[in-house]
Specification:
The protein has about 350 residues and is an alpha+beta fold. It is built from 11 helices and 8 strands. β2 (about 30-35) and β3 (about 40) form a beta hairpin. The protein is elongated and about 205 Å long.
C-alpha cells in the first residue's frame, strides 16, 4: 500500500515536472511574447522574464524589439535630368507592436525591404543629380516618410533612412571633374584679379604720395638698392634716370623730310634801250615775252640760256650815254654781222695803213 502511494507520488511529481518544463518559457529583455491559444491571439504581451503557457494548447511567439539595420540593394534609375545612376541605401527600423508585426504582415522584414526599394526608385526618378549628390538630407527625410507611412500599420516604426552611395557612369564622372576644374579656375582668376585691383589702388595712392614728396621716391630707390645688395650675389644695380631714356628715344626718331618744290622759272631779261651809234636814232627794244614756268621734275639743273647778241651789243654801245631804242633794221644787222668785240680783219689792216 505504501509502495503504491510512493509510486503514485513519484509518477505525479514526474508528470508535474514534465508539465512544468513544457509550460515554462523565458522572454528576454529585448523581446516581447505573443501567445496564440488554439490559433486565437491572446490579449496582452508577455513581459520579459519567466512566463507560463498551457502546453499543447498555447503557442508563444517572441518578437525582437531591437533596431534592425536593413541594407537596401543598389537600385538603378534615371534621374529627372536624364542621368542614369545606381543608388543604394540602408534602413533603420524597429517593431513597436509585436502583435501587429505578427498578425498584420506575413514577414515584416521582407515587406520593409521591398517598400524601401520601391521608394528608393521613386525618389531617384523625382530628384536631380545635384540633389542626390549634395542635398541628401532632404531626400533621406522624404524616403523615410514614404517607407514609414505603410509600415505603421505593420507595427513597425522606421527610425531613419540613409542613402549610402551614388554610382555614376565614367563619362559623367569625367564631365563633373572638368566642370569642377573649370569652376576652380574661374574662382582662382577672380581672386587674382581682385588682388591685382587692390594692389593697383594701393600703388596709385603710393604714387600720389611720392609725387607730393619727391624725396620719398629717392628713399624708395635706395631701399631697393639695399635689398638687392643684401644678397650675396654678383648683381650690380645702377639707378638710371628715366628722363634720359626718354631723351634718347626722342633723339633716335627720324626728322620729318620736306618734299622738294618745283624749280623757279628763269628771270626774263630786262628791257634795254641802247644806241647803235652816236648819230643813230634811238631804237626801243621790246621786252622779251615771259614764258610760263612749267613744273620740272627733280633732276640736273637746266643750262643757262644763251645771251642775246642784240642785248649784249646794246649794252656795249650804250655805256656812258643815254640808251635809245634800236630799230628792227639795226637789230637784224647786228645779229647777221660779226660780234662787236671781234674787229674785222680788213678794217684793222686799213686802220693801221
Amino acid at each position: 500500500m505504501v509502495e503504491e502511494l510512493v509510486t503514485a507520488g513519484v509518477a505525479l511529481a514526474s508528470a508535474g515536472a514534465v508539465y512544468l518544463m513544457a509550460a515554462a518559457r523565458v522572454v528576454k529583455q529585448y523581446e516581447r511574447g505573443v501567445v496564440f491559444r488554439l490559433g486565437r491571439l491572446q490579449p496582452g504581451e508577455r513581459a520579459p522574464g519567466f512566463t507560463m503557457i498551457v502546453p499543447f494548447v498555447d503557442r508563444l511567439h517572441k518578437v525582437n524589439l531591437q533596431i534592425v539595420t536593413l541594407p537596401v540593394p543598389a537600385q538603378e534609375g534615371i534621374t529627372r535630368d536624364n542621368v542614369t545612376v545606381r543608388v543604394d541605401a540602408v534602413v533603420y527600423f524597429k517593431v513597436v507592436d509585436a502583435a501587429d508585426a505578427l498578425v498584420e504582415v506575413e514577414d515584416y522584414r521582407f515587406a520593409v525591404s521591398q517598400m524601401a526599394q520601391t521608394s528608393l526608385r521613386s525618389i531617384i526618378g523625382k530628384s536631380d543629380l545635384d540633389d542626390l549628390l549634395s542635398n541628401r538630407e532632404k531626400l533621406n527625410q522624404g524616403l523615410e516618410l514614404m517607407i514609414d507611412s505603410p509600415a505603421v500599420g505593420w507595427g513597425v516604426h522606421v527610425d531613419r533612412v540613409e542613402i549610402k552611395d551614388v554610382s555614376l557612369p565614367e563619362t559623367m564622372k569625367r564631365s563633373m571633374a572638368r566642370q569642377a576644374e573649370a569652376d576652380r579656375e574661374r574662382r582662382a582668376r577672380i581672386i587674382n584679379a581682385d588682388a591685382e585691383l587692390q594692389a593697383s589702388k594701393k600703388l596709385a595712392e603710393a604714387a600720389q604720395q611720392m609725387e607730393d614728396t619727391p624725396s620719398a621716391l629717392q628713399l624708395r630707390l635706395l631701399q631697393t638698392v639695399v635689398a638687392v645688395a643684401a644678397e650675396k650675389n654678383s648683381t650690380l644695380v645702377l639707378p638710371f634716370p628715366v628722363e634720359l631714356l626718354r631723351f634718347l628715344e626722342r633723339a633716335q626718331q627720324p626728322l620729318p623730310t620736306v618734299a622738294p618744290g618745283p624749280p623757279r622759272a628763269p628771270a626774263a631779261p630786262r628791257p634795254a634801250t641802247e644806241a647803235a651809234s652816236p648819230g643813230a636814232a634811238p631804237v626801243e627794244v621790246p621786252p622779251a615775252e615771259a614764258v610760263p614756268a612749267e613744273p620740272v621734275a627733280a633732276g640736273p639743273e637746266p643750262a643757262e640760256p644763251a645771251p642775246d647778241p642784240v642785248s649784249e651789243t646794246a649794252r656795249d654801245t650804250g655805256s656812258g650815254a643815254a640808251r635809245e631804242p634800236l630799230s628792227e633794221t639795226v637789230r637784224e644787222q647786228l645779229r647777221s654781222g660779226p660780234p662787236l668785240g671781234e674787229p674785222d680783219g680788213e678794217g684793222s689792216n686799213s686802220s693801221h695803213a
